[in-house]
Write a structure and sequence with these properties.
Layout: H1 2-12, E1 24-26, H2 36-39, E2 40-42, H3 53-70, H4 74-83, H5 91-100, H6 105-117, H7 121-133, H8 140-151, E3 157-160, H9 163-176, E4 183-186, H10 193-201, H11 214-223, E5 229-232, H12 237-240, E6 247-250, E7 253-256, H13 263-274, H14 286-292, H15 296-308, H16 312-329, H17 332-341
Parallel strand pairs: 3-4, 3-5
Antiparallel strand pairs: 1-2, 5-7, 6-7
Helix pairs in contact: 1-15, 3-4, 4-5, 5-6, 6-7, 7-9, 8-9, 13-15, 15-16, 16-17
């Protein structure tokens, strides 16, 4: 188990884990016009989803400046809603922004999040459908998301990190009815008090802190072990460090358990019967190339164990898939080094 957790850390320095720009930060530049591109810049933060007090203050100040400039503008309404961090009571501002720019990808994403939070399955399905049909997010995420859901334990909980992986699995549940036994929990959407209340009503326990960060994640997973907690591999490794002794690679998720799990048998079954690897058919899609690397944790465990068990046929089959992913993702050199090491 621990071998493959440290393999995850090794891979993380060489392979790309989808994190949907991970964190947004407000930067006000008075010399520029107030477009989303000018003021809403990516800021990677692998330790928390919540804004820091300073970031929140900067966002609030920007909103006030937009209000003074034109309180009826798209920028004021959109960022006023964003400043609430999924506060459903501010929905009227998002509605106003949607009326001003109905085709804005960022507005459509926020609408999907809102409908997920308030449990409006009809509008959530419609909005999520739009996100993928109009290529706001790559359809390759859906091929990957199906394998993620099928990797999650029966009646389990799947923790996602950002928007990309969350929307893919939510789409598959809302529109395809796939794995409706799985409770999806987005660390991003946990910033919403309404979302947390919904989960409390489903008997999830919460730590006594507001900020959604690595310490929150650790406590949340430990408090809800009885919910068959699984975390997507798109969750940054920084979140996993404190619980690493109790994490088991099962397909495209890490399963948390303080009791021993025979994840080799689970992975062998997933490899043979459950996972579809459809993402490997999208040769010209960068997102597919990135996400394909996440199959390697499971495959390297199988390869290593088949070698120990002297199961030559299975070893060669898995080895072939690993090489295919290496070529597909452009990581063959890294994979060759891993083969020598493991």
């Amino acid at each position: 188990m621990r071998l493959y957790f440290f393999l995850l850390f090794f891979l993380a320095s060489s392979l790309v884990f989808s994190q949907d720009s991970i964190r947004k930060k407000i930067v006000y530049e008075s010399s520029k016009t107030s477009s989303a591109e000018d003021v809403f810049l990516a800021n990677k933060n692998l330790h928390r989803r919540s804004l820091s007090p300073q970031e929140q203050e900067e966002l609030n100040n920007y909103v006030e400046q937009m209000k003074v400039a034109d309180e009826n503008s798209f920028e004021h309404n959109f960022y006023k809603y964003l400043s609430g961090r999924y506060d459903v009571s501010l929905f009227s501002y998002l509605q106003n922004a949607s009326q001003l720019k109905p085709r804005s990808p960022e507005v459509i994403k926020q609408l999907a999040a809102y409908y997920i939070i308030i449990l409006d399955s009809l509008h959530a399905a419609e909005t999520l459908k739009m996100i993928f049909e109009e290529n706001i997010l790559s359809e390759s995420l859906l091929a990957y998301g199906e394998d993620v859901l099928n990797s999650t334990s029966k009646n389990g909980t799947l923790i996602t990190h950002g928007i990309e992986d969350t929307y893919a699995v939510e789409y598959l549940q809302f529109t395809k009815g796939l794995r409706t036994d799985v409770q999806i929990i987005s660390l991003e959407l946990l910033q919403s008090s309404a979302y947390r209340e919904f989960l409390k009503n489903k008997e999830y326990n919460f730590p006594e802190q507001e900020s959604i960060d690595t310490s929150f994640f650790t406590a949340f997973v430990e408090l809800n072990e009885d919910k068959n907690m699984c975390t997507a591999l798109t969750v940054p490794k920084e979140y996993l460090m404190n619980i690493s002794p109790n994490l088991y690679t099962t397909g495209l998720v890490m399963r948390y358990s303080t009791k021993m799990i025979d994840n080799f048998s689970i992975n062998k079954y997933l490899w043979k019967y459950q996972l579809k690897y459809l993402i490997l058919k999208n040769k010209n899609d960068v997102k597919s190339q990135e996400l394909s690397s996440n199959y390697l944790l499971m495959l390297f465990q199988l390869r290593h164990t088949f070698q120990l068990k002297n199961e030559k046929d299975n070893f060669e089959k898995v080895d072939k898939i690993i090489d295919e992913i290496g070529v597909f993702s452009g990581k063959q050199e890294v994979i060759n080094r891993l083969k020598l090491k493991y």
